[in-house]
Amino acid sequence: MSQWSFAKRGLLAMLMALCLILAACASAPPSSPVSPGTTESPSVTSPSSPELTQEPTQEPTLEPTKAATPTESDTSVTPVSPGVLSADSGFRPETDGFSFENYGNEAGYANLMAEDLVRLFGEEVVASRAGGTLVLAPPASQWMEEINQQMKDGHCEGMATLSLLFYTSKSQTADFGADTTYGLKIADNEKLQREIAYWFVTQATDPTAKGVLNTVTPQQVVEKLSEVFQAGKQPSDSYTLGIYKPDRSGGHAITPYAIQQKEDGKLGILVYDNNYPGMAREIEVDQQANTWTYSGSTNPSEAADTYAGDAETKTLELAPSSLRMERQIAPFLSAAQIGSNPSPWRAALGLGAAQAAEGSLTQIWVNTGAEFLITDSQGRRLGFAEGRFQQEIPGAKAQSLKYGLNVWAVDQEPVYFLPGDLEFSMVLDGKSLSKEGRSEVTMIGPGFDLEISEIQLAPGQKDELVFAPNGTSLRYQTAGSESPDIFMGMEGQEVDYAFAIKGMELQGGGALEVSRDMEKGLLILKTTGSGGPGTYGFLLGRITQAGGEQIFGHEAISLAPGDTAYLDFGRWTGKGGTLSLQIDRSSDGTIDEVQELTDMTTALNEELPPPADTEGATAATPVP
After folding, report:
1. Model confidence over 334-348: pLDDT tens digits?
2. Please, what is the average pLDDT of the chain?
3. Average pLDDT in the 516-541 region?
4. Could you tell me if 491 and 332 are in contact, meaning their C-beta atoms sit under 8 angstroms apart?
5. By the 8 A CB rule, do 313 and 243 touch?
6. CB within 8 A of 25, min separation 6: which ones?
7. Taking a C-beta distance cutoff of 8 angstroms, is the pair 580, 594 a contact?
8. Is the backbone peptide bond immediately before 138 cis, with ω within 30 degrees of 0?
9. Of all residues in the chain, what percent carry a pLDDT higher than 90?
10. Beta partners for 317?
11. Hey, which of 35, 250, 313, 351 would disulfide with 407, CB 3.0 to 4.6 Å?
12. CA distances from 540 to 127, 473, 558 (A)
């Protein structure tokens, strides 16, 4: 585990404890190469055409809604009735599916680790391998943490994909401990756990995401699968099947393997559903009406509810395996990194660093039980408001991921995408909360990441976040008394930086603003409107290719309301030493105080136990 991962998981707890002690004592303010893919998304033809493609004119945009609650459930699972198989790939759930059920982030189970991210995106996500330790660039590390958290509600996409890759011999079960897919064990099998997580992630990356056929009708899905199944274990391509409720809740990924003719003239798409190990399941398709239905639940012992759709709902989608096996494009690389080490897929598009940066989007990951809404400077909205999904910001979109573990209770927010040059705000509104809840918001874009967490929002409390373009600043206004954690990461030409800031008590009505000036090498911290002085601690991570990762930490920085502090991180070259902190009391433009801060991380490290790594979100791993 990297020093920064250790610091992020443990040192802030010590900083918080030390800040609390100081705050309690103070009564007054103290002084491998792959073949390139294609970006073109083919266009949907008429239902009678076997060449199933989709329109290239506009990238598909999802309009997710909150997960629906089932109204009528059936605790029984209807077995697949016998019938004639008009198309059959030969896949069978009892041998080619996994013997274990879909799972979340159980203790002791691994997800992505640093080397997995390199495999997914290439060496351009690596900040250093000095001393045999792989250290990811800060935005890459943050993105991996976010996507790993998403898997807490299920790994269906990874299980559906990997079972298909095993069957078509694109991957070998023997490499993971058994002769058949059904013979594989998930417990104590970190290699298999990480492999399932790896394929889960491809639903969120290009070119895979761009290649999903998500504007198709039930009839078109039947035609495409019929064509593919005729080739058995050696198709030109293979497909997982994504299903959603009509409101696009309950996203789930399953593995189709045969088409069955039914006595009533309808068809059945036989599927392996990873929530039902060893069982044949069926999606019923009425070709004449161009509709489909599927009864599913989290497992056979729980209540089932019905998925359904027609030609207009677009709630079936096909994801090709071929694009998953391409080198994926990292959505968080800076223009400098893209230019120095372009991926084959990006190079095939003729995209240099400038073009890639110009067309980039910023990702927003939200983890909260409160209501929230994203608004730009012109008042245009993205998110849920007035009982529906609002998508008023040009160039913005939302992408729902598929989990499948608890398809009726999942309350995961989609990932939101905004133009990179946009300033926007977000209101966290606790009006619907029945008790205090934790909120976290993360912003990731080309060459940077920005996160605010540990917001303890009370019922009725309303807080506001304002994000500057490219993650250069964050302003947090609270109506309560908060102690948020703020993380900032950025890639440079020769040096990458990561910051963690812990503030103790930001009084109700107060605001905290954190910003960075990379040209001057300054981290800027300002408080306004709070009821009293605040005590802060910080961590600074500095990463170079030759020197690896070094950490500087300090606590007990005291700021009165209206003060601005400037941390001169650009002058720190690592290996101990001091950092200069300049304080402008009352923020009148005059530096009133200069402090030389000493590194306290060694002492803090000695007092902390090693952190557990239960989610596999390691930012750095030893290189064999």
Report:
1. 655 555 444 443 444
2. 80
3. 87
4. no
5. no
6. none
7. yes
8. no
9. 55
10. 242
11. 250
12. 16, 17, 18
Whether the Cβ atoms of residue 306 and residue 295 lie closer than 8 Å to each other: yes
Give the total residue count for the chain.
624
User: Hey, what are 288's tokens?
Assistant: 């004449």
Give 499's contacts (C-beta < 8 A, 6+ positions apart): 486, 487, 488, 489, 516, 523, 538, 539, 540, 541, 569
Give the tens place of pLDDT for each residue, 137-178: 999 999 999 999 989 889 999 999 999 999 999 999 999 999
- Residue 611: its pLDDT value, please? 44
Task: List, as one string, the DSSP characters of 186-210.
Answer: -TT-HHHHHHHHHHHHGGGSBTHHH
Q: What percent of the chain has pLDDT over 70?
A: 75
Q: Using an 8 Å Cβ cutoff, are 254 and 160 in contact?
A: yes
The amino acid at 139? P
Q: Name the β-bridge partners of 280.
A: none
Tell me, what amino acid is at 593? E
Confidence check: pLDDT of 135 > 90: yes
Q: Backbone dihedral region of 542: left (phi > 0), alpha (psi from -120 to 50 degrees) or beta?
A: beta
**Which of 309-313, 403-407, 469-473 has the lowest average pLDDT?**
403-407
Q: Which residue has the tokens 């599913």?
A: 296
CA distance 536 to 558: 6
CB atoms within 10 A of CB 349: 18
Q: Give the residue from 549, 551, 552, 553 showing the smallest Cα distance to 620.
A: 549
